[in-house]
Write a structure and sequence with these properties.
Layout (H helix, E strand, L loop, with lengths): L1 E5 L2 E6 L2 E6 L5 E4 L10 E4 L17 E6 L6 E7 L6
């Protein structure tokens, strides 16, 4: 049985436990309860990739992180963050 969690994500109940998975392709991301924001799902972009208004932003935002499903490439999360050394 699957139940929706948020856009493009659902929780799969299977014999081997509950899994966070893509609602599009069904690809498993991680056991439910763990974060799907793992480095292997992350791509980092300059803030301007978020839109033209971010091009000249004076905010402390230094990068846009997009998290995608490796099986199909669908976006399941995004963050605007100030990075220290990790990019």
């Amino acid at each position: 049985m699957n139940r929706p969690l948020r856009e493009n994500l659902e929780v799969e109940s299977a014999a081997d436990g509950e899994w966070l998975r893509c609602a599009d392709c069904g690809g498993r991301l991680c056991p439910f309860g763990q974060t799907g924001r793992q480095p292997r799902f992350r791509r980092v972009f300059p803030p301007a990739k978020a839109g033209p208004l971010m091009k000249n932003s004076r905010k402390a935002v230094t990068c846009l992180k997009k998290y995608t499903v490796p099986h199909c490439g669908v976006l399941f999360d995004a963050q605007m963050v100030k990075e220290k050394h990790e990019v």
